[in-house]
Amino acid sequence: MLEQCGVYLINLDRSPERLAKMVEGFQALGVPFQRVSAVYGPEAIIPPGIHCSPHFTLGELGCVLSHRRCYEEILKSDKPWGLIFEDDVLLEKNSWAVVEHAFQKKPKNAELVKLQGEIENPKKLNRKLDLISVDSKRT
Hints:
3-stranded parallel sheet; 5 strands
């Protein structure tokens, strides 16, 4: 499955300690990844043609724009799938098995699969999956 996926890590430039922790986690899993520089909300510039809710906090705006950067990288890649991780997710030895399970169970027409965290520990990757099928076409 890994050969079909680009793996992207969202990380703020000002958070090298989080990056170091994620590098360690991905190396332990044997998973190569590409770091994507996160958008810091208070310094965010909304690109022309992008409409965001006026109710977003600056942090939410930064998060949305950071994920958008990842989507752009996925579209530029030659991989049919992209996996996006934020730098505060807890990677454990079974994390990749969870990702593979989600990939195997996704609907055939799914273009987005969201892995949901636990309520007690929202960033812990586990088997609670929210599979989302979307209609958009890759251009």
